[in-house]
Design brief:
By secondary structure, the chain is α+β, with helices and mostly antiparallel strands. The protein has one domain.
C-alpha cells in the first residue's frame, strides 16, 4: 500500500465509517489504520471506529456501527423517519 491512489481507493471502498474489523476482514493488518490517521486521511473516533477526514461525523451512523444489533426507538426513530423536526440526542 505505498501508492496514494490505492490508499484513497481503499478508503473510498470502505465508506465513511471504517471499522478495524473491516480492515482485518480484507486481509490487511490493522496498523494500516494508524498510517492513514498519521497521513490525515482518516480520524479516530474511538477504539476500532474511524471516519474519513472529509466525512461528516454522523452520531447515528457511528452508533449503528458500534452496536450492530441496536434499535433506534421512540423520539429517535421519529426523528430518523422525519416525523419530528428537532431531536435531542440522549444516549442510553
Amino acid at each position: 500500500m505505498t501508492n496514494k491512489s490505492s490508499e484513497y481507493t481503499l478508503i473510498d471502498k470502505l465508506g465513511d465509517v471504517i471499522l478495524t474489523r473491516d480492515i482485518t476482514n480484507m486481509g490487511l493488518h490493522r496498523s494500516i489504520l494508524k498510517k492513514f490517521v498519521d497521513k490525515g486521511l482518516i480520524t479516530k473516533l474511538e477504539r476500532g471506529i474511524y471516519i474519513k477526514s472529509d466525512a461528516f461525523e454522523d452520531e447515528f451512523l457511528v452508533l449503528q456501527s458500534r452496536y450492530s444489533k441496536g434499535i433506534f426507538s421512540d423520539e429517535t426513530a421519529l426523528f430518523l423517519l422525519g416525523l419530528v423536526i428537532e431531536h435531542q440526542l440522549n444516549l442510553t
